Structure formats: structure tokens, C-alpha cells
Amino acid sequence: MTFSASVVPMGGNGANGAAKHHVLSVLVENKSGVLARIAQLFSRRGYNIYSLSVAPTEDDRFSRVTIVVDVESAPLEQITKQLHKLINVLKISEINASQAVEYELLLGSISTSSESRSEIIELVRIFDGKIVDVGFDKLTVMLAGSPKTLDDFEALLAMYPIVEIQRTGRVALQKLDRSAPTRARSKSGKAS
Amino acid sequence: MQLTGAQALIKSLEMEQVEVIFGLPGGAILPVYDPLLDSTIRHILVRHEQGAGHAAEGYAHVTGRPGVAMVTSGPAATNIVTALADAYMDSIPLVVITGQVGTTLIGTDAFQEADTTGITMSVTKHNWLVTDASQIPTVVREAFHVATTGRPGPVLIDLPKDVSNQLMEWYWPESVDLPGYKPTLKGHPKMIQEAAKLISKALRPVLYVGGGVLRADATKELLTLAEHCGIPVVTTLMARGAFPDENPLCLGMPGMHGNYTAVTSMQKSDLLITLGARFDDRVTGNVAGFAPYAKVIHVDIDPAELGKIRNPDVPIVGDLKLVIPELTKEIKKLKVDIKAQLEPWIAELATWREKFPLTYQQDPSGRPLKPQYVIERLRQMAPPDTIVVSGVGQHQMWASQFWKFNHPNTWVNSGGLGTMGFAVPAALGAKVGRPDKVVWAIDGDGCFQMTAQELVTATAERIPIKVAILNNAYLGMVRQWQEMFYDQRYSEVYLSPDLPDYVKWAEAMGCVGIRVDSADEVQVAIEKANSINDRPVVIDFRTDTWEKVFPMVPAGKTNDEIVIGPQEMENK
Ligand SMILES: Cc1ncc(C[n+]2csc(CCOP(=O)(O)OP(=O)(O)O)c2C)c(N)n1
Ligand SMILES: [Mg+2]
Q1: Which residue of A has its CA nearest to B143?
Q2: Fewer CB within a 10 Å sphere, N or C end of chain B?
Q3: Is B304 within 8 Å of A78 when comparing Cβ atoms?
């Protein structure tokens, strides 16, 4: 996969992929075409994106792009340096999994039978998920959690007839420094 | 003061002290061509938009100021893409303005609509689609800032027709506000000290100088550094002229067609002091075998160049204009007699130079006429600071090898992209930028046919450039590869020496046309060309079809496998 926004391979291979994946949190100007510039840069330089998510930040002049990159395609340092050359890119932080809060969302529709229905509801409860839609013979479940938790959940769901699963790709923020006032605050304070 | 977007654009260009625009109008840019009539800015009407782009590049190469081109939407915008890509590869500051269909038509496949910002994204440093006339002064200011600062490069402003017609309240921004763009200029002092230490200990150092030194206007600083330490210098294809060829420390051009001493000095070096160069594959050959014993100091204003191809031992991000003097200062502090230390190295280089000079043989009968002989005669008969512009191919390599460049910004060529057709329009732009200098384009017959129509522009605008076509009747560089690496199976490389008739063609374009068939006629022809200053001159030099460029490092081979000349080729 050269580039694909918000596409996460099915089947929960996140665990074995962990080592070759790095998370970049990229603060960009909220201008039209910025995502195209990032996508284009990755494709032109032959870097692979594993997953990507974009949304405006607390300050609507900026957006945060969370990119999970495949570092087997190029050294991370080259990727960040090239990204930095984009005029609209303000800041890039590499998010180290051990020092970050990482979340991802999963939605899944599963065909149910009378026996499996309660098992699935139980499974969702154990994982702290939610049933968000109920059909005659199907359930749609939702789980937000770390990518690893989602992998585990997805593996267990696979025992049932899955109609469809959609994951968002992860978003991440650096863990807060407990010894000092929050960095995130002072940052947005300066920006506004 | 209320202005239309078009008026605001022209006024903004005036504020940026633009003196000349190369361009060609059309529907979407029509509104801007009207206020242009009332402006002091000179406009040069090219015959093809690619020519506008290359002319702007030639102008930027020789003046150090950004070249400006303006064209309409759709096909005009796509026509200028080659020049943008060329400028991007060689870090040439350009500001290109394209017309665009009206904002309400964007995305509807309107007449002459093209996704210009999308198409040019990967060949510009940045581009802007203007959606409101009030943005124009800000965008122009930002565009010139981005094009000329940090690592220079081309930028593009796409201007929809309705935005050109829209009224806005004129203002001129005091400063630029680009929070994501802050080039690092000052080198890290610790790193500079480290570099100085390495230099003071090296026994076989080489200054590996690239086009960045010219872009940074740091040639004087380089001369001081090199002469203080007595370190030999190689100048890449992009850096010819950044260090004077006549200086005894200058080893000339390295790379695929570099001379033996320049190439081998790097192979045997223990320290490459890399200044504004980027380890291009045409310089390194097979990277795994490139300069195997060398530590590397790498100074560049673009952090992404450091470690892209070769990991430096000492990386320094910064502007060469500032870093080189700092480095010299640090070296002086160490009080090491570097010159004495380098005596054996300099002596060894001298023996190579003597043993393996660049050579060719002009037969005394005058035929066949050797291209290298033509270049040497052109040089001997030209003023010392003549600007030489070349196309791409064998003639380019011979021009780089056999001209002697002793002044910065006198060599204009397409290095990174290797764009055939560059020479004629770039020469035109160079002459516009430096009307006081003689400008010779040394072109190939193949290249000439790609953009020759800009000689019509040159005649019409009274831009007296001189063009020497080294007419070998072939796409010579490709022919050379087919001869050497494809068993002499010549496939689609023959052009014919007299189709077209270059003299008649030149005359039809308002130039003086001269034909030269043998070495005996060279002197008279050049004298005649030199005496003409009121119109362009084209000399059709009928040169030896079979001449090859040597030395050569065959593609994929390491620089140790350099082939010095045809004799050696036959022995292999
Ligand atoms: C636009 C473009 N097309 C193709 C090439 C590939 N190419 C490189 S050199 C060359 C031959 C150039 O022929 P000519 O201008 O006659 O120069 P010569 O090598 O004969 O001196 C070609 C086709 C190129 N560099 N640029
Ligand atoms: Mg030729």
C-alpha cells in the first residue's frame, strides 16, 4: 500500500507490525490542500503510510495529522525531514508508544444467532465496548481503545460471522508531564 | 485605494522589484496583461511557455534574483511544468504565475482548466491557489520569500480569472507570516568546531563543492577557506565557476564524465568537506563504492540532504555564506600548519593531473572537426567572464570539461533534470539579466530542435545571444551509450546533419547563420559571430559524429572503474 487514508489492514496484524511502525503527530496549518501535499510527498518519495487520521485541533487555524508510517520503506529521519520542508507543516513529534496516549476506534457489524447474541454482548461488556446498533439478526458494536486492545477484540470477534469491520487508524498525543504545567495548554495558549 | 486583483498583482510584482517577466498571454490571464501595459516591468513574449520558464531560470542563474514567468491556464500551465521541475532540481528561484479558470468553474472541466496546483505540487517548493483578490499582495510577498530564502526553488501562484477582476483594497504586507517556514541559517558552533578538528587532522581532504555555494553567494568565502588550508577543490557540474579553474587547487569536475584526478581524489580521500552538494548518483557512481575511506563533513541549508544518500560524520545545517567563514575561523584557531601537512597529497594529485589530462586530437587536415576543438577556440576568443549556457548531452559534458570557468554564475546548465532544450531560452534569459556580458549557448543539434523558436523571441526583443550548435547529426549521448553498452545497435538516434538546414532556419528566425565544416573555418566564423551585436548568431559546427565523452564511469559501476579514454575501452 503506497498511500491510503484511514485504511487499516484487517485481521489484527498490528502486533507484529509494531516494530516497523512509527507514529508521527504532525501539526499543520489548516489550509486547503495540506493533506494532498502530505499524501503526495509520501507517494513521490516512496514512503508507506500504514494509517492516517486528520482533524482540526483546539485552535481552528491548525490541524493535527496522525500518521503511522512504515519505516521499512525509508528511514524515519528522512521522512520527518522531508515533511518539515512542506511550508504548511509547523511541528512534527515522533510519538513513542510507551510515552503516548494512543486511541483508535473500531465499528463492527456481526451476524448473530440466538446463541451467539449473548456471547457477543458479553464480549463487548468485558472490553468496555458498546452495542451501538441492533438489527433483526445483526449487531453493530463499537470499541475505543489502544490499537493492541482493538487487535485482541477483533481477533475474538473473528469467531463470529463478521459482516463488516471498520477501524479509524490511531490518534495519539504525547503523555503529559506530571511535574510541570501541561505543555499542550501553554502551546494552544500561545497560538490563540 | 481600490485595485482589481490584476492591478494588485502587477503592483505587487513592482513592489518586489521585478524588472522583467517572460510570458505568453491567454484567456484566463487576460485581465493581468492589461495593467501590464501601464507598468515599468518589461515583458518578453516567448514562443512557447517552456521557453518562458527556462528563460526565467537563465535570468535567475546569472543575476541571483528570482526569475518571473507568467502564462495562462491549462495547456500553458502544463507547458511550463518542465521548467518548474528543472528549477526544482537545481534549486533555482522562480516565481511562476498561471491564469486559472474562474473560481466557480474550478472542478467542472471548464475550457482550459487544469489542476495546476495539483500537477505542480511535486516540482515546486510551494504553490498557492488564490481564491480572493485581497490575498494577492500577501501571496506574492510569501512567494518571493519562499523562492529566494533557505534552499531556493520555484514557486507557483495560480490566479483564477474572476479573482483578477475582483476589486480589493490595496495594501502591502510589512512582513511574511509563515509559521511553518524558518530556514536555519547559522551553523551549530559545536559542529563547526568538530569539522575544523577533522580538517586539521586530514591528510587527503577534498572540498566537494556543489551548486549550493553559488546559490549562497559564498564563492569568496570558499576561496578564502581553500587557500588558507591549501585544500584541493572539485566543482560539480552545478558548481563550475564557483571556484576558479585557473586556481592551482582546482581539480575540476568529478562524476560520470569528470576528469581522472577529480574523480580519483574523492575515491582516495580521507575527508570530504561537502559544501552545498548532494551526493547525486552522477557524482558518486555506485554509492556503496564511493569515497570508501572518507569521513564526511556535510554543510547544507536543507536538513533533508544530510544523511539522504551518505551519512555525514559531521552534519551542519546552515547558510554557506555564514558557515564557511565560521569554519575558517575555527580552523585558524587550531593553529595547525595544514598546508605543510598536505604537501604529499598535493604532490600526488599533481602527478595524476600530469598523467591523465583531458585530451582529444584534432586532425591537422581539419576534418573531422572535433567538438572539443570548437569549444577551446570559442573560449580562447571570448572575453574571460563570458556566460556559457548549454543543453544536455555530449556537448554539455565537453563544454563543462573544456571551458575554463573563472567567475561565478558564468555557467548555466540543466544539471539535475537534464532537460534537452534548455540552452536557447536560458541563454536568452541570461542575456536579459546580464546584457553587458557575452552569452554563448553551446547546444546540441537534438536539443536545438526542441526550443529553437525562442530565437524568434531573441530577434524580436533584440537580445543578441550567440549559439554554437555542435552538430554531430545524432542524439550523441544516447548514441554513445548504444555504442558502448548495446553492442553498437543504434536505435532511433540518427538526426541527419542537414535536416533541418540550420543556417536557413537561423536566417528565417532573423539571426545570422554560419556553417563550419572543418577546423580551418572555425577562427573566421567565431570572429564573425563575435563582431555581431545587433542580433542573434547561430553557428552550425559540423562535428565528428563518432567522438565520445571520456573519461566515463559506466552507470552502476564504482568510480574506481573509471574508463579514461577510447584506447582503454578497446582493451577491456
Ligand atoms: C527532454 C529530454 N528528452 C530526452 C533526453 C535524453 N537524452 C539525453 S542526452 C540526449 C541526446 C541529446 O542530443 P544532442 O542535443 O544532439 O546532444 P549531443 O549528445 O549529440 O551532444 C538525449 C536524447 C533528455 N535528456 N531530455
Ligand atoms: Mg547531437
Answers
A1: A87
A2: C
A3: yes
